[in-house]
Design a protein that fits this description.
single chain, mainly beta, 2 domains, seven-stranded mixed β-sheet, five-stranded mixed β-sheet, 4 helices
């Protein structure tokens, strides 16, 4: 729970500051600084959001008023329009248990508002909408729609990005959390520049309440919708993608999670696998490679990685070449992996990528083709 001093310190901070506050952390003690820009993302009904009021000496705005302000073209995802505070503002919450309400307040500090021309905010809806990059360089914050479920294997928040279209001159990077220059590399989930010339991006499932996408260098478009997609099919044999654990980077998870990557390699080709490991928050990790007849041919743990790793989340690269057929990741704590598939030979067989997740937290990613895993983040 944010207290008065925490939010006050933030709102009085210098440039390049922003903060995403879940509704459950809102209190009547919060004061928002004059000139700050507010965005509200929530699927709660009008009657509920009208009971959350931002008030100042000039006017009152309900959470509903702010959440509904958006603009966009037909078929394209609507960009949210932020509310710039005309004076220091306080929060009034009456007649509702804020701890049981879903939603977020996104605050941009006054010093950042004037320089946020290439900064955009969106709500992800259940229907697929098209995102088209508006600037040569842009930062795009997405809030996933809350969709409660009784199935523990399906996350309440999740978005699927698909049908990427961009030239090789464009770079696409995906991060968790709110945009900030501080320690941004440690929050990287996907980076299209780690592609060895490949520009085919698989559908990406991001099971998080919010994340942001940075684009630079050229045109870019993709479709986005609220969904959790355990099955993905592709006709491409050369592609890249990412696997992200639910609630990443939640550090309170104490259960061991197993993720497996397997693929057909009937000719037992020596496949080059490159891991770029980025240490952050993970308590333990073991990566095991399996070959013919499901035999273990190589394994290593996070404690056996190159010594150039440090507390500042420096990345290290590990490359191996084996006739592998399956890779298993045993992890304790948050887990994300970026992968790159490169076909070593021509094939007319369609690649099928299937991801399944059990209620115990096990994920299975089946790849038909040849594999080069690029980035594993911790």
């Amino acid at each position: 729970m944010l207290n008065f001093s925490t939010i006050a310190l933030f709102l009085a901070a210098t440039a390049a500051n922003s903060l995403i506050i879940p509704f459950s952390s809102l209190t009547n003690k919060l004061i928002f600084k004059n000139g700050s820009q507010l965005f509200v993302s929530s699927e709660e009904p009008l009657a509920t959001l009208q009971k959350i009021v931002f008030y100042n000496s000039v006017e009152n705005k309900t959470a509903w008023d702010i959440s509904q302000s958006s603009a966009g073209k037909n078929g394209q995802i609507s960009e949210k329009i932020g509310y710039i505070l005309p004076d220091d503002s306080q929060l009034s919450i009456t007649g509702v248990d804020i701890r049981r309400i879903d939603g977020f307040v996104y605050v941009i500090a006054p010093e950042d508002v004037s320089t946020s021309g290439t900064f955009h905010v969106y709500d992800v809806k259940s229907r697929a909408e098209s995102f088209v990059m508006k600037d040569i360089v842009s930062t795009n914050v997405f809030f996933s729609t809350y969709k409660p479920t009784t199935d523990a294997s399906i996350p309440a928040y999740s978005a699927v990005l698909s049908n990427f279209n961009y030239p090789s001159t464009t770079k696409i990077s995906i991060y968790y959390g709110e945009p900030s220059a501080a320690n941004e590399a440690s929050r990287l989930l996907f980076d299209s520049s780690r592609n060895n010339g490949n520009t085919k991006i698989q559908s990406l499932t991001i099971p998080l309440g919010n994340f942001y996408v940075k684009t630079s260098g050229g045109l870019c478009s993709f479709d986005i919708r609220q969904d959790y997609n355990p099955v993905t099919k592709s006709s491409a044999l050369t592609t890249m993608g990412a696997l992200v654990s639910q609630n990443y980077p939640n550090t309170e998870v104490d259960a061991m999670e197993t993720n497996e990557v397997s693929f057909e390699n009937p000719n037992l080709l020596n496949v080059t696998i490159t891991f770029n490991v980025l240490l952050k928050n993970l308590k333990s990790l073991k990566i095991t490679l399996f070959g013919p007849s499901n035999s273990e041919i190589f394994s290593f743990t996070d404690t056996e990685l190159p010594n150039n790793l440090d507390s500042n989340s420096t990345s290290a690269e590990v490359t191996r070449q084996f006739p592998i057929q399956r890779i298993r990741f045993d992890s304790l704590g948050p887990f994300a992996v970026q992968y790159n598939l490169e076909a070593p030979y021509a094939s007319t067989t369609a690649e099928v990528i299937t991801t399944t997740r059990s209620s115990s937290g096990t994920s299975l990613l089946t790849l038909f083709g040849s594999l080069s895993l690029l980035t594993l983040l911790k």
